[in-house]
Design a protein that fits this description.
By secondary structure, the chain is α/β, with parallel strands linked by helices. Helix 13 links the parallel strand 10 and strand 11 (296-299).
Length: 571
């Protein structure tokens, strides 16, 4: 197909020219179906999944419909989140490149309202914004809708789900009687249909069926996993596949914070993203992820709306989504631009029936995957280290050769010296991995597993538990712990003080590795770790305290003499 097929939809030369420059080869199904109706200024309801080109489906024809003789806002687009509003704004900016008289601005919370005042004074033809900020500007008189031709509701189901129904209805009430309403949504929930019956005039309805998402671009896997082993499973998936950029989805804000902290303690560059964060925090997290400074983005579904990051290697469903449609949105963020992607979904034994539902939804097989074992992780690590050593050996520094010679003078052969270095570099992680294997193989008896059983009683995806979505007790009970297989919530713990901290470049895995390697205590037995500037705390089972104090006070961590003592209670 060629770009001329866009021309056959009745588009101007300006638009077909920019489409060619942007690499649009042919319209997607939602674009081919929607563009003629929007051009004809008919009301429209469009349903399609993420990644199908919905934004262009309404942006292209709405730009075409702009009347250059009218001074004022003619197109208003409402989006549920600031991230999506920015994405839609950027798409309009690109598509309107040759429509030189068409001005576009984005308005949303978290940005200077004075700056938005100045932008609105220019009477932009296109305004993209979030419902709350749009309502605010209408009330202030800085956004006037008397010239409005088209109102577009993007991700309408998400806006209603986030509680914006009153704001949306307020905006609709302020629009002229003769205007076009275009509504795009991933689902056709009852609230959507109720809104459309009240405000849309005999709308055209377009529904694009979910495509087979795994054909060439995406492999879907599930892993039977209890709540206490999720962090370990995540760690194994990422390291075992050498993933560089991963999206991890949780159902609640509490679980986002919890999972991000636990992954950080394993040495991953993980950050959380959810609605309780300030806009500045969310911007920082997103910029870090896009730049690759953050390699694991842990997010809720709402916070990730509008997220468009290239090169995501895999999506991990830490929690099975509470709504079937969310799964499609999640996994659609990997396997783009012809690059192979993968999705992994954790499910306890009472959630396995949901995997079948997800497979039916995506019209593809979801394969049970096995986590890399400790031995496979060890072999992989040794192999990679061997490759790095061979590379370094070509340009080895004479100072290090001198160290080997000094050791040889003391009766240590180069072979023994090299083996000792390898053991020092590898032993701690290998002990931890073997301890994790042992813990994952043990029967589950902790509180987390009772939670797993209770979660399995959910009847189906349509039963949205509001307390779960806001962070219920089951998630808060796990917060602040090291997580995964490395902690069992029913153990009696003591808190120890350590004389090293961030100033010594200390990380949680250094503490775990040192204790596990020197005392023989399994990494799964170690509890919460709290690292400060020049000191740290670690929780140890009470029955192991004497052993830790006796052994560790004669050892070193990262080349620093270490001192352990029982922490004094807070006053």
């Amino acid at each position: 197909m060629s770009i001329r097929e866009f021309s056959s939809l009745g588009l101007s030369e300006k638009t077909t020219k920019v489409l060619g420059e942007l690499g649009y080869e042919n319209p997607t199904p939602i674009q081919a179906e929607s563009i003629p109706h929007v051009l004809a200024k008919k009301d429209l309801i469009g349903q399609a999944q993420t990644g199908t080109g919905k934004t262009a489906a309404f942006a292209i024809p709405s730009i075409e419909n702009i009347d250059d003789s009218i001074r004022g806002t003619q197109i208003l687009v409402l989006c549920p989140t600031r991230e999506l509003a920015v994405q839609v704004y950027n798409e309009y900016e690109k598509l309107a490149k040759y429509h030189t008289s068409t001005d576009c601005i984005a308005i949303y919370g978290g940005e200077s309202i004075e700056k938005q005042f100045r932008g609105l004074k220019r009477n932009p033809a296109i305004v993209v914004g979030t419902p709350g900020r749009v309502k605010d500007h209408i009330n202030r008189g800085t956004l006037k809708l008397n010239q409005l031709q088209t109102l577009i509701l993007d991700e309408a189901d998400e806006m209603l789900d986030m509680g914006f129904v009153e704001d949306i209805e307020f905006v609709l009430e302020q629009t002229p009687e003769q205007r076009q309403v275009v509504l795009f949504s991933a689902t056709m929930a009852p609230e959507i249909m109720k809104l459309s019956k009240r405000y849309l005039n005999n709308p055209e309805v377009i529904k694009i069926a979910s495509k087979n998402m795994t054909a060439d671009t995406l492999d879907q896997y599930f892993i039977p996993c209890t709540s206490r082993n999720k962090v370990t499973a995540t760690d194994r998936i990422i390291k075992g596949n050498d993933f560089n950029l991963v999206l991890l989805f949780c159902n609640t804000k509490a679980m986002v914070d919890d999972a991000a902290v636990r992954l950080q303690r394993l040495g991953h560059r993980a950050e959380g993203l959810h609605g309780d964060m300030s806009q500045a925090q969310r911007d920082r997290v997103m910029n870090n992820f896009r730049a690759g400074h953050t390699t694991i983005l842990v997010a809720t579904d709402v916070a990730a709306r509008g997220l468009d990051v290239k090169g995501v290697d895999a999506v991990i469903n830490y929690d099975i989504p509470q709504d079937l449609e969310y799964y499609v949105h999640r996994i659609g963020r990997t396997g783009r631009a012809g690059k192979k992607g993968a999705s992994y979904t954790f499910a306890n034994r009472n959630e396995l029936y949901k995997i079948n539902q997800l497979a039916k939804k995506t019209k593809a097989e979801i394969i049970q995957a096995e986590l890399p074992s400790a031995e496979s992780m060890i072999n992989q690590r040794r192999e990679l280290l061997g490759i790095e050593i061979l590379k370094t050996a070509e340009f080895v520094n004479d100072e290090y050769l001198h160290m080997v010679e000094q050791m040889e003078e003391q009766g240590v052969t180069p072979e023994i010296f090299a083996a000792a270095l390898l053991e020092k570099m590898l032993k701690k992680d290998e002990e931890i991995w073997r301890a994790e294997d042992k813990a994952m193989a043990e029967p589950v008896r902790s509180k987390g597993d009772r939670n797993d059983r209770s979660r399995g009683r959910d009847r189906d995806f349509g039963d949205r538990n509001r307390s779960d979505r806001s962070g219920g007790r089951r998630d808060r009970s796990e917060r602040g712990r090291r997580g995964g297989s490395r902690f069992e919530s029913n153990r009696d713990m003591s808190r120890l003080f350590i004389n090293l901290g961030r100033d010594n470049n200390l990380q949680p895995r250094d503490i775990v590795g040192a204790i596990a390697g020197e005392t023989g205590i399994g990494g799964n037995a170690i509890g919460e770790i709290d690292i400060h500037q020049n000191f740290s705390f670690v929780e140890i089972p009470k029955e192991e305290v004497n052993k830790v104090l006796k052994v560790m006070n004669t050892r070193m961590i990262k080349g620093n003499p270490v001192s352990f003592e029982i922490a004094k209670p807070a006053r």
